[in-house]
């Protein structure tokens, strides 16, 4: 096929690579920054970059869900947690743990597994970006027909996490006499 | 290309004009509800140019950054708070036949997702100010957002279920008049939750001037403070327009073919009036009352609305 060589990239390919570089840079800054809140804000940039990637791959629905869940809720939750505990302005070196080498090994291992998996699964498959692949109808069809079992398993997992969070936050033993609160 | 530029130009013009109209309406409506006149001098006729004069005043003021503040985040915050509303306006349909900035396949998700990002601006402002009142305001903002995002989404999901589409023009194409009573509970939940996300009274505990000065915006002055105020008015416009599109039929009305845009503007204006009215009519809720209202009233109501929508969809299908 013409126009599908790595050496003659289309405009979309170029934008994809550029956004990827920005995302990578923001992710690196996120883990290296010594300012706690700056790290959270770099996380916003990194997650937003991934949303732009989804858009470029015509997965519009997934892109907006990414913005809604990760930027709108998860990062707000992270910032809320930081502000509620301690988030001084300026560097906070005491927040660095000594687990850096271990974290690096885990990150590299996870990245290695994911890259191997993706490369092995898709190899030289090209997707045609002129027709949308990720409209809400297509995602819904896929999710509730072909992948309904993993979807249900995930929702059970989330429910278990929810129940677990409630159990953990109840703090048994600190209950006052009489039990009712 | 010129078509796209024209559309974006119109969206930008609406973004610059409508919030100012709402702001001026707030001055006058609040004044008359409280038995006074409001601004009467600027511009001559009933003080119509008051907001322009305010803008000039804000532009002349010194832009102060506190010494202990995180300068970059502090300066960036107003833009993060304001820009999402501009982006959202692109997806809101004004009239029939594709009279919309850009028709999006998952428009409902798009607008709600981008609206959620605007809160990051308040959080950044509150943290970067290095002021305990600002931090308290930001904390309340975050808690409020997390509580009200869920009912907002659930109410919007009910409309998406009824219409069978996530696109905003698609929702309007599928609209029938009996949707208004059918989705009435959802509409009330959506509008109330939207008010809370905008931190408008009676849900303005995050900025409560009598308790925490002005919340996350305490340390701001000059143009950056004006940008936060503009974001609030733009938020009113966006919330009213979204409620009109999702629950009140947007451009539907007599002679919708020619006058559709007028119906849409009228419905948006009426809802904006209700937002201003709520500020005059109700006292401020406490932060804990705000939380309890979200989790014990709005979430169950939104779930009940979804159950009703789903039942009726299955029965009539």
Automatic annotation (TrEMBL), chain A:
<feature type="transmembrane region" description="Helical">
    <location>
        <begin position="102"/>
        <end position="126"/>
    </location>
</feature>
<keyword id="KW-0520">NAD</keyword>
<dbReference type="GO" id="GO:0048038">
    <property type="term" value="F:quinone binding"/>
</dbReference>
<feature type="transmembrane region" description="Helical">
    <location>
        <begin position="63"/>
        <end position="82"/>
    </location>
</feature>
<comment type="function">
    <text>NDH-1 shuttles electrons from NADH, via FMN and iron-sulfur (Fe-S) centers, to quinones in the respiratory chain. Couples the redox reaction to proton translocation (for every two electrons transferred, four hydrogen ions are translocated across the cytoplasmic membrane), and thus conserves the redox energy in a proton gradient.</text>
</comment>
<dbReference type="GO" id="GO:0008137">
    <property type="term" value="F:NADH dehydrogenase (ubiquinone) activity"/>
</dbReference>
<keyword id="KW-0472">Membrane</keyword>
<comment type="similarity">
    <text>Belongs to the complex I subunit 6 family.</text>
</comment>
<keyword id="KW-0874">Quinone</keyword>
<keyword id="KW-0812">Transmembrane</keyword>
<dbReference type="Pfam" id="PF00499">
    <property type="entry name" value="Oxidored_q3"/>
</dbReference>
<protein>
    <recommendedName>
        <fullName>NADH-quinone oxidoreductase subunit J</fullName>
        <ecNumber>7.1.1.-</ecNumber>
    </recommendedName>
</protein>
<keyword id="KW-1003">Cell membrane</keyword>
<dbReference type="InterPro" id="IPR042106">
    <property type="entry name" value="Nuo/plastoQ_OxRdtase_6_NuoJ"/>
</dbReference>
<feature type="transmembrane region" description="Helical">
    <location>
        <begin position="14"/>
        <end position="32"/>
    </location>
</feature>
<dbReference type="InterPro" id="IPR001457">
    <property type="entry name" value="NADH_UbQ/plastoQ_OxRdtase_su6"/>
</dbReference>
<dbReference type="GO" id="GO:0005886">
    <property type="term" value="C:plasma membrane"/>
</dbReference>
<feature type="transmembrane region" description="Helical">
    <location>
        <begin position="146"/>
        <end position="168"/>
    </location>
</feature>
<feature type="transmembrane region" description="Helical">
    <location>
        <begin position="39"/>
        <end position="57"/>
    </location>
</feature>
<keyword id="KW-1133">Transmembrane helix</keyword>
From TrEMBL, chain B:
<feature type="transmembrane region" description="Helical">
    <location>
        <begin position="150"/>
        <end position="172"/>
    </location>
</feature>
<keyword id="KW-0830">Ubiquinone</keyword>
<keyword id="KW-0812">Transmembrane</keyword>
<dbReference type="GO" id="GO:0003954">
    <property type="term" value="F:NADH dehydrogenase activity"/>
</dbReference>
<feature type="transmembrane region" description="Helical">
    <location>
        <begin position="106"/>
        <end position="129"/>
    </location>
</feature>
<keyword id="KW-1133">Transmembrane helix</keyword>
<feature type="transmembrane region" description="Helical">
    <location>
        <begin position="73"/>
        <end position="94"/>
    </location>
</feature>
<feature type="transmembrane region" description="Helical">
    <location>
        <begin position="6"/>
        <end position="23"/>
    </location>
</feature>
<keyword id="KW-0472">Membrane</keyword>
<feature type="transmembrane region" description="Helical">
    <location>
        <begin position="293"/>
        <end position="315"/>
    </location>
</feature>
<dbReference type="GO" id="GO:0016655">
    <property type="term" value="F:oxidoreductase activity, acting on NAD(P)H, quinone or similar compound as acceptor"/>
</dbReference>
<keyword id="KW-1003">Cell membrane</keyword>
<keyword id="KW-1278">Translocase</keyword>
<feature type="transmembrane region" description="Helical">
    <location>
        <begin position="261"/>
        <end position="281"/>
    </location>
</feature>
<keyword id="KW-0874">Quinone</keyword>
<comment type="similarity">
    <text>Belongs to the complex I subunit 1 family.</text>
</comment>
<dbReference type="Pfam" id="PF00146">
    <property type="entry name" value="NADHdh"/>
</dbReference>
<keyword id="KW-0520">NAD</keyword>
<feature type="transmembrane region" description="Helical">
    <location>
        <begin position="178"/>
        <end position="196"/>
    </location>
</feature>
<dbReference type="GO" id="GO:0048038">
    <property type="term" value="F:quinone binding"/>
</dbReference>
<dbReference type="GO" id="GO:0009060">
    <property type="term" value="P:aerobic respiration"/>
</dbReference>
<feature type="transmembrane region" description="Helical">
    <location>
        <begin position="225"/>
        <end position="249"/>
    </location>
</feature>
């Amino acid at each position: 096929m013409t126009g599908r060589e790595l050496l003659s990239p289309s405009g979309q390919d170029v934008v994809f690579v550029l956004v990827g570089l920005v995302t990578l840079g923001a992710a690196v800054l996120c883990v290296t920054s010594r300012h706690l809140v700056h790290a959270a804000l770099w996380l916003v940039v990194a997650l937003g970059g991934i949303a732009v990637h989804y858009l470029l791959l015509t997965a519009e629905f997934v892109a907006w869900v990414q913005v809604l869940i990760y930027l709108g809720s998860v990062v707000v939750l992270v910032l809320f947690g930081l502000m509620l505990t301690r988030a001084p302005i300026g560097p906070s070196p005491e927040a660095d743990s000594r687990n850096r080498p271990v974290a690096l090994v885990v990150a590299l291992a996870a990245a290695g597994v994911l890259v191997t998996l993706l490369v092995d699964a898709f190899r030289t498959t090209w997707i045609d970006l002129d027709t949308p692949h990720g409209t809400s109808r297509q995602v819904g069809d896929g999710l509730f027909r072909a992948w309904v079992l993993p979807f249900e398993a995930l929702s059970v997992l989330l429910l278990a996490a929810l129940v677990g969070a409630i159990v953990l936050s109840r703090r048994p033993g600190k209950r006052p006499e009489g039990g009712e609160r | 290309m010129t078509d796209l530029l024209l559309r974006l130009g119109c969206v930008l013009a609406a973004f610059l004009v409508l919030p100012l109209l709402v702001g001026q309406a707030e001055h006058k409506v609040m004044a008359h509800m409280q038995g006074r006149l409001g601004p009467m001098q600027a511009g001559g006729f009933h003080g119509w140019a008051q907001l322009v004069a305010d803008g000039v005043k804000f532009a002349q003021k010194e832009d102060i950054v506190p010494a202990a503040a995180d300068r970059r985040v502090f300066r960036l915050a107003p833009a993060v708070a304001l820009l999402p509303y501009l982006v959202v306006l692109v997806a809101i349909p004004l009239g029939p036949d594709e009279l919309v900035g850009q028709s999006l396949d998952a428009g409902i998700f798009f607008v709600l997702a981008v609206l959620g990002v605007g809160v990051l601006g308040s959080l950044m402002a509150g943290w970067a100010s290095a002021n305990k009142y600002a931090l308290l305001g930001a904390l309340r903002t975050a808690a409020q957002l997390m509580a009200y995002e869920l009912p907002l989404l659930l109410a919007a999901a009910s409309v998406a279920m009824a219409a069978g589409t996530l696109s905003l023009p698609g929702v309007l194409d599928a609209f029938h008049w009996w949707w208004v009573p059918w989705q009435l509970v959802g509409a009330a939940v959506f509008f109330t939750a939207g008010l809370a996300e905008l931190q408008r009274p009676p849900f303005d505990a995050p900025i409560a001037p009598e308790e925490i000065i002005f919340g996350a915006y305490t340390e701001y002055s000059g143009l950056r403070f004006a940008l936060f105020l503009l974001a609030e008015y733009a938020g009113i416009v966006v919330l009213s327009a979204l409620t009109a599109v999702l629950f009140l039929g947007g451009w539907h009305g007599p002679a919708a073919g020619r006058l559709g845009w007028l119906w849409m503007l009228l419905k948006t204006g009426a809802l904006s009036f209700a937002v201003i009215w709520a500020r005059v009519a109700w006292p401020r809720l406490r932060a804990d009352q705000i939380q309890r209202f979200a989790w014990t009233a709005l979430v169950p109501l939104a779930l009940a609305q979804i159950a009703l929508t789903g039942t009726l969809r299955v029965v009539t299908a």
